[in-house]
Amino acid sequence: METLATEINTFYSRNRWVYSPFSFLFFNQSRRLCANYLSSVNENLNVLEIGAFDNSYKKMYSKRHHYTAIDLLCSEGVIQMNGEEMSFADNTFDVVIMNHVLSVTNNPKKMLQEAIRVSKSNGVLLVTNHFSDSRIKKWFTFFTKQLYFKSFFPFKVLHLPKLRIEQIQSTFKLFPIWKFIVIKNIK
Hints:
The chain is an alpha/beta fold. Strands 3-2-1-4-5-7-6 form a 7-stranded mixed beta sheet. The chain is about 30% helix and about 25% strand. It starts with a helix and ends with a strand. The relative contact order is 0.15.
């Protein structure tokens, strides 16, 4: 698995100049939905973002919350860490944000289990990802492999015993398979 993490790290490091504008164009709405959720909460929260990339979205989130960012890539203000094997203690975070990372991780179920472990009981997971129960067109699958994400990503991956889906919202009208999901950790 370390080889895949190294491959992904190398790919995104080399292509950061393309990926940053691309992610802003396509993923900004999901970050805004996360920011709106965090702004709607009156208390100070301990927030973790898995797959924070270059940490450019931190400023969108409320300044009253304690924010921790991790990614496979090393960037300023980001802890280099694999979301499948986090070194945080159990029950550390009130909110765990996972924007467009479940489909690029080697083992999405393991990442979700880690998010459950590090989030507090009744904590919230904010997940944005594309969900597709059928293979997307062959040409798109070829393209997605080059970008290290899976075109086939079933919604059922979120159905774990310790999770309760509270809200589902489309994030991008052109691609309605992208969803913003608020999930309660009911461990």
